[in-house]
Amino acid sequence: MASSTSQVSSIENWLQELQSAKKTALVQDDRKKIHFIFKTGTEMVEEYDIKTNELLVRKWRTKTTLGREGKWDFEIGEQFSPAGNLEAELFRESNLNPIFTRKDTKQNFQWRIRNLPYPVSVYDVTIDKDNRCCIIRTSNKKYYKKFTLTDMDRAGLPLDPQALTVAHANNTLIVTYKKPAEILKMERQVQQELLKIKATRDGDMECAPS
Predict the structure, then answer these.
(1) Tens digit of pLDDT for each residue in 153-186?
(2) Which of 168, 129, 5 is nearest to 73 (CA)?
(3) Which residues in the chain belong to E strands, given as ranges?
(4) What is the rounded CA–CA span in Å between residue 115 and residue 103?
(5) Which of 63, 151, 198, 205 has the highest count of CB atoms within 10 angstroms of its CB?
């Protein structure tokens, strides 16, 4: 089933779901935006940097129980306020609560938690292999976070504690998980599939889904 939850699937199943989904592509604001609609009605949007092909955003949306469109749930990247929305920007800047986001690189999954001023020695970051999640604890009891590695779940791959590293800089905790070879191969296969989609440019007429 296509979802952003931690239900374990497999690489083959995920690739088949991507292939069978309705897809449209749009180039806008130096990003290539791919819109997927799966057979279940669930939507996924991925946004890639047009120059580096780096994945900047992955977000999901499902319909509510009343059949209305729900809100976007960001798996990678984050929602930014529209330009000119001063009130929202001031609120964002004044918000000192920890902000959890994911921002991957070519070789790594990476999560960043902003507004965490404590030294790196305070954090205990571990992999729970049985419950298939990563847990962040602090010795001062100021922060706790448990999150799943959604790509690893979709691929049905075991979690490796040795792949995990932690760093801290500029009041930001950076948790990095090295992508295994199976994930790198799957991402190459996904890119080959996305190349089949003819992308329209912002301002052009939208093409029919593939």
Answers:
(1) 999 999 999 999 999 999 999 999 999 999 999 9
(2) 5
(3) 22-28, 31-37, 43-49, 55-61, 73-76, 99-102, 108-114, 123-128, 133-138, 144-147, 164-169, 172-178, 199-201
(4) 16
(5) 151
